[in-house]
Amino acid sequence: MQRSDKPLTLRVFGRNKRHGKKLAVVTAYDLTSALIVSSGGADAILVGDSLGMVVLGHENTLPVTMEDMLHHCKAVVRAKPDIPVIADLPYGSFHISAEDTVGNALRLVKEAGVNAVKVEGGRQRLEIIEALVKAEIPVMGHLGLTPQSVNALGGYRVQGRSKKAAARIMDEAKLLADAGCFAIVLECVPSELASAISESLSIPTIGIGAGPGCDGQVLVFHDMLGLFDKLSPKFVKQFANLGEQACQGIARYVEEVRQGDFPSAEHSYDAEPQSPDRKSEIDSGSGYLAGVENGKG
Ligand code: KIV
Question: How far apart (Å, rounded) are the C-alpha atoms in residues 118 and 26?
């Protein structure tokens, strides 16, 4: 799988906003998902701390560590996806001091090779956002339902429904833009509010459960492809049902192994290649053990 268009940088965010072209962002957490997202033509990858739930099996995103994020970001970057890679700063990595925050973000840039970081929160994050921007680390903001605040918010619920709450989120969006964020994720806010924020900012808004008026959208890889059905929020649209297909594939494999139908001669090796041609039958794909002789027959 290879992306055919020319590589994109973070500049795509500003460019698309100026040209009124919607941005499509998808999360990815490893080499394979990064290749799929980039080959599908997405504009950027978010290595979200949602990996805590859909990959690591935690109840929420709070236990995700810097080491978890580094591990998964490195795998995503190794895919050379040709689109910007943005990494979530996990809970606890930006709550101590601006200095500590910049140190953590620098690790994601220097050790993992990501292009930007995302920080959840509004007014209370201004100091650290400014420190990150000063350190030349591009920052994506995140307002509305910020899952790392699950305890403080008392659960996952739509934010900004009252006039007062909507005004606060609008205000904070402007503050984040002024602090230097290149884009802001708006999660689970009423469509009218998201549209008003999007119209009032010169940087793009990326919505998730924030309606069609945002400048772009983001979805979690496992949710949109039907690979994770423990939670199914209203904002998720399933664009494929890979979970079901994968279960069927595993069931067919189990059956064939039990029946002795797999592996057949087609998937087995002889002691010696049968003809000189066989030597050139090398798998040039990128799968597991790529390069092993096809060696049929
Ligand atoms: O962690 C994540 O995947 C996110 C997106 C849902 C915006 O923050």
Answer: 14
